[in-house]
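Exam revision sheet. Question 4 asks you to relate a sequence to its structure. Input first:
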Amino acid sequence: NFFTIMGRLAPSTTENDAKQKLPTGGVVSGFTCTVSAAPNGATKSYAFTLRKAAANITSTCTITDAATTCTDSTNTDTLAAGDLVDVNAVSANTPTAAKAECSVLFNPNS
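Answer key, structure tokens:
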């Protein structure tokens, strides 16, 4: 499922419904996602990936077992004004149903 990085939108199976156009370029870091209920199982998970122009970029994190939050504290991605961005969420092994939201730290170009 796909959802927006800013604001609220119910997840969609259609990526075009979730894409948002950036008004300015910059660097994103600290990609963090939170779910309302833990996946509850060592093999159950939610994997989140930031996307640009319908392709995965390096910002990603996975929530497993009893966790409810994940953060990518390693990767950064450079985005340009006009880029279309969204988040892809993929579940594995039928985790507990949950609502999710993600955020990034955005450092705009000067």
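Marking note for examiners. The longest strand covers residues 26-35.
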